[in-house]
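Example record

Each entry pairs one chain with its bound ligand, nicotinamide-adenine-dinucleotide.
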Amino acid sequence: MAFTGAGISTECGIPDFRSPGGFWTQYKPIEFGEFMRSEAARLEAWRRFFAIRDRFAGAVPGRGHAAVAELVRRGHVACVITQNIDGLHRQSGIAAERIIEIHGNGTYARCLTCERRHELDWARAAIAAAAAPLCEACGGIVKPATISFGQPMPEQAMADARAATLNADLFLAVGSSLAVFPAAGLPVTAAHNRTPLVIVNREVTGLDGLAALVIHGEIGDVLSRVVELAGQTESIAGRSQKSRRHGPA
Ligand code: NAD
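Structure tokens for the complex follow.
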């Protein structure tokens, strides 16, 4: 299985969280508790959300997303767990049931009470009228369908992610500082379960010591090469199967 973080989307023009550059310091996250407590905080959170979204709405999947999608298509990757909220794995053509979004999805909103889905254009109209959106069905607080700091993790997604981790025969962690918990607990679980942990990242992560293999490099380059090697391995396996069936040429 593959586990991805913000680093897989930097090639698409979406900055990550911790690399130097400071983009996110302008949009310091508003914690969940504050969002729930105050209408002013909700309005500000929504405004920051749209400021970020408008800047990156045109982003399209990059080489890393394409490589992961290809590994899924060829049956090498059964499941993608992502911390990203940009929806680019879905956009790269991977079926929704193979993607587990443990920090939610920033392409729509949800009511925190009845969980009804709301579209962002509808929420934008409320914000334009200086009111934080409330659910049309039950009057509950509506929030982008992402998980904020301090917000409980989605139970089903985390249970699915843990099951996929325990089932994996290899855990490929790509483009994550592996510093955000509980998400980073998944590669720890894999390593403790004696599943080989492979980390692909530009810089050192806190979990490199647990990994069977660490590749420090650009995700687009490394994963494109992995796809190439997978192709070569498949054709060697195909040739040897054929010669076993037909005897030596
Ligand atoms: P992070 O910013 O903590 O770590 C990203 C890592 O990727 C860094 O170690 C960086 O060196 C590496 N990296 C960046 N570009 C790379 C490249 N092209 N090749 C190789 N390595 C590269 O990100 P995280 O661990 O995912 O945690 C950040 C949190 O913020 C997550 O919870 C995520 O939900 C959220 N976030 C999401 C997005 C998104 O959806 N695209 C963007 C920013 C933050």
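The pocket of nicotinamide-adenine-dinucleotide is lined by residues 5-7, 9-11, 14, 16-19, 83-86, 103, 175-177, 179-180, 201-203, 218-219 (CB under 6 Å).
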